[in-house]
Amino acid sequence: MKKKDLEIRLQGMKDFNDPDPTLEQYMTPSAIASDILFTAYSEGDIHGMDIIDLGCGTGMFSVGACILGANNVRGYDISDKAISIARENAAAFGADVEFEVRDVRNVKERGDTALMNPPFGCQTRNADRAFIDKAMELCGTVYSVHMETTAEFLNEYVRSAGREICFQKSYRFNIPHTFSFHSKANHNVGVIMIMIR
């Protein structure tokens, strides 16, 4: 499968019905998700691997990893509603994913690769740290999306944990008008994907 074909398929994913602003529930755009998935795939971090999706939301990374031949995929989210939609998406795509409602801090199952788009910390300061900590605890390789302005901090934080950011890539993440406090119809923010080993 080509990256563009995966992007087109992932465009059919069902979005949040009633997103929770405190959880910063925005579905990862399919163009960004497919690029990250193919990066991980080309690095040998998806096909035949055990994948963990922390804060899986609607299941974008989980379903994409299944399509690209992951051995076992597990997605975790604290939101019942998000997990319900993720299960619908997995069923619609014929993706064999085990989804579970659980706070990521309580996840114990290990994997080869973590794929995640954690909260950026706009509503709850440092909300993404628990995700980074848990991903590094459970997996040898981590692909994670964060605000571009936090790049320097992330490098230091990851290094202090004895890991290294081996690769990063910038994207423009479109956030549509979703909540009452949004003042624009669409807002593009700079984000980075970091790959930790």
Which secondary structure elements does this structure contain, and how are they paired or packed?
Elements: H1 3-10, H2 30-42, E1 50-54, H3 60-67, E2 72-77, H4 80-93, E3 97-101, E4 111-116, H5 129-138, E5 139-147, H6 151-160, E6 165-176, E7 186-196
Helix pairs in contact: 1-2, 2-3, 3-4
Give an overview of the whole structure.
It is built from six helices and seven strands; from the N terminus they run H-H-E-H-E-H-E-E-H-E-H-E-E. With 197 residues, the protein is of the alpha/beta class. Helix 1 (3-10) packs across helix 2, helix 2 (30-42) crosses helix 3 and helix 3 (60-67) runs parallel beside helix 4. It has a seven-stranded mixed β-sheet with strand order 3-2-1-4-5-7-6. Strand 1, helix 3 and strand 2 form a beta-alpha-beta unit. The two termini are 26 Å apart. It is globular and about 40 Å long.
Q: In percent, how helical is the residue content?
A: 25-40%
Average of pLDDT: 92
The biggest beta sheet is recorded as: 7 strands, mixed
Tell me the overall shape: globular
According to DSSP, the number of beta strands is 7
Order of helical and strand elements: HHEHEHEEHEHEE
Strands side by side in the biggest sheet: 3-2-1-4-5-7-6
Would you identify the regions where 5 or more consecutive residues have pLDDT less than 50?
none
Compute the separation of the termini in Å. Answer: 26 Å
| SS content category | alpha/beta
Strand content: 25-35%
Q: Figure out the total of helices.
A: 6
* Gyration radius from CA atoms, angstroms: 15 Å
